[in-house]
Specification:
This protein has about 90 residues and is an all-alpha fold. The chain has one domain. Helices cover about 55% and strands about 0% of the residues. It is built from 3 helices and no strands.
Length: about 90
């Protein structure tokens, strides 16, 4: 069974920050200070969301398409960054 693991665990804060920045750029309502969960009461009654657990990192209301757009954009930017770094290395 394949498992996702970070090769550089120290970068998780930077990746989280990038995730929220990209979500904001794409107009996806997530993060602190946003009323992103519209049916919290209903979700807690169903047991799909624990009462009091809806906070900054809740993405349950985000569609798969939107979440995929965020992940795809992260990947695209990381590839661009790696390409820029390799070009700088070749030029020096």
């Amino acid at each position: 069974m394949a498992r996702n693991r970070q090769l550089v665990p120290e970068c998780s804060k930077a990746l989280d920050q990038m995730k929220y920045e990209i979500a904001a750029e794409l107009g996806i309502p997530v993060g602190a200070g946003r009323s992103s969960v519209h049916n919290v009461e209903f979700a807690t009654e169903l047991g799909t969301v624990a009462a009091g657990s809806v906070g900054e990192d809740y993405w349950g209301h985000v569609t798969s398409r939107d979440a995929g757009a965020v992940g795809g954009t992260i990947t695209q930017r990381l590839v661009q960054y790696a390409q820029q770094q390799s070009m700088q290395t070749l030029q020096s």
